[in-house]
Every structure is written in C-alpha cells, then in structure tokens.
Amino acid sequence: MTEAAMHIRRLFLEPKDTYSDAEAAEILAMEMLDLKSRMESGEVEGVRNCRSMTVCRKELISFAMDFWPQDAIEEALGDDLAKGIPKLLRLTDLHVRIPRFEILALQRLAERDGKSVDAVLARELLDIVSAESDFLATKITGFSAALLWPR
Fold first, then answer.
1. How many angstroms separate the CA atoms of 35 and 44, rounded?
2. DSSP string, 48-84
3. What domains are there in the chain, each with its CATH number?
4. Could you tell me if 146 and 85 are in contact, meaning their C-beta atoms sit under 8 angstroms apart?
5. pLDDT in tens, 17-35
6. pLDDT, tens digit (0-9, with 9 covering 90-100), for 53-111
7. From the CB of residue 29, how many other CB atoms can be counted at a distance below 10 Å?
8. Which of 4, 25, 42, 85 allows an S-S link to 35, with CB 3.0 to 4.6 Å?
C-alpha cells in the first residue's frame, strides 16, 4: 500500500472530529508551511485554539476530495469504500457523445489545471447540479445530502 493510500484510509476510515494543523499536514503529506498558506488563503478553514490551529474532519475531507483524485481515494479505500464515501458520491462511468471541440477544450483545461478531464468535467457538472438543486432534490432521493457532503 502506498503512503498516500495509508493517509487516505486514515482520514476516511479512522474518524476524528478535529485534527491539529500538524496532523492535517501529515495526512495530506504536505509541508506545514504549505498548509498554513492554504489556511491563510481560505482553501482550508482552520480554527485557532490556544496552542495552534485545528481543522475539522469535514473540512479536511472536503479539501482532500479536491487534493487527491477521487479515483485514487476510491482505490485506496478498496473494500471499505462504502464506509468512507456515500453511494451517490462514488464514481461511475458515463458514456457521452459530444462535439470534438468540447473534448479538446476539456483536455486543454485539464492540462492547464493539472487535473484529469474527469475532474474538470465533474467540476463543471457540479455547477449545473448545484444551480438545479431545488428541482433535483425533489427527483433524486438523497440528492441534498450528497450535494452537501461532507458537511
């Protein structure tokens, strides 16, 4: 098992309510200064206590879902996937036919962002489903909970 997989499993399968900034940096395999920079920019929301900063589990999972590719998270969780990620949030295949220029555009955006085409498309689709959430919540059982997860 890779080191990243061990960190993923720790976060998703060994829940704690909060993590110290040092624990959060360790889980993300990130330098403390990088985490602090991300906290200052608002990418990661921390809470100051008397000694340091803490990060709640939900915030850390939310950040981790963007930090690690979801396929890597799901692979690391393996047979424990159902314990870590709700069913409606797990990856599934979708076959679509779209114009070639849109595929090329997605590929270039993915290259620019250092992401996969899947991740770029998922981000854009999230905008659509968020905008249509009132309607979709009436049509899909568990939709609202999935949209708000891990909050």
1. 8
2. E-SSSEEEEHHHHHHHHHHHS-HHHHHHHHGGGHHHH
3. 3-85 (1.10.10), 100-148 (no CATH)
4. no
5. 999 999 999 999 999 999 9
6. 899 999 999 999 989 999 999 999 999 999 999 999 999 999 999 999 999 999 999 99
7. 12
8. 25
